[in-house]
Amino acid sequence: MVRFENVGLRYGLGPEVLRDITFRIEPNSFQFLTGPSGAGKTSLLRLLFLSIRPTRGLTTMFGQDIAMLDKDSLSSLRRRIGVVFQDFRLLDHLTTYENVSLPFRVLGREEDSYRYEVIELLQWVGLGERMSALPPVLSGGEKQRAAIARAVIARPQLLLADEPTGNVDPSLAQRLLRLFVELNKSGTSVVIATHDIALMDQYDARRLVLHEGRLHLYD
């Protein structure tokens, strides 16, 4: 599904923040991405989400060489990827329900075909009473859950989550991780960036460990 070969990334004329990154993400796989602050986790996630291109090296996503794709083709590939951003990126003028429905609306689906599915997921993540609320009145944890619901609602082929349990209590963190596990069982490849060693220790999953811009793999 994803292949990086000797990928490097630098911003402007600065030093490389990622160096010689080589790894693969197989279909239906589950992995954690971890490492100290400043190691390059967010940069690697941005490469995986196709919001930036590498400075050098080969990157293929869903069998396609990223360097050969135009803007429209990249946008098409992004629709196959779900992302949970650390800053949530909810649209303030849309309700919780409307934010979570966005992936379906982008695909042009009629509301009658997804309304029950969205409501069921919002209830499952504890936002059933907040469906009509706008993001500015939501707490940090509620925004986090809404962002997660939006990322998983359309069952993407690849899910990228940047510290998805950072703003919730341990009990809810476990529940959200179970959601990711179930999504993985249904066919989605999952990459979760986290600092929470205790959380990772509870799952038998591959670890992608970044240190000073280099990647180490632990199966």
Question: Brief description of this entry?
Answer:
The chain has helices at 41-48, 71-78, 96-106, 115-124, 140-152, 170-185, 197-201; strands spanning 2-10, 16-25, 30-34, 56-61, 64-65, 81-84, 158-162, 189-193, 206-211, 214-218. With 219 residues, the chain is of the alpha/beta class. The longest helix has 16 residues, at 170-185.
Explain the overall architecture:
- Helices cover 32% and strands 26% of the residues.
- The chain is built from 7 helices and 10 strands.
- It has helices at 41-48, 71-78, 96-106, 115-124, 140-152, 170-185, 197-201, and strands at residues 2-10, 16-25, 30-34, 56-61, 64-65, 81-84, 158-162, 189-193, 206-211, 214-218.
- Helix 6 (170-185) links the parallel strand 7 and strand 8.
- The longest helix has 16 residues, at 170-185.
- The chain is globular.
- The relative contact order is 0.20.
Helix-strand layout with pairing:
Elements: E1 2-10, E2 16-25, E3 30-34, H1 41-48, E4 56-61, E5 64-65, H2 71-78, E6 81-84, H3 96-106, H4 115-124, H5 140-152, E7 158-162, H6 170-185, E8 189-193, H7 197-201, E9 206-211, E10 214-218
Parallel strand pairs: 3-8, 3-9, 6-7, 7-8
Antiparallel strand pairs: 1-2, 1-4, 4-5, 9-10
Helix pairs in contact: 3-5
Residue stretches low in confidence (pLDDT < 50, at least 5 long) are none
- Class computed from helices, strands and strand pairing: alpha/beta
CATH topology: Rossmann fold
Helix % is 25-40%
Tell me about the biggest sheet?
Answer: 6 strands, mixed
- Helix-strand sequence: EEEHEEHEHHHEHEHEE
Q: Could you give the count of β-strands? A: 10
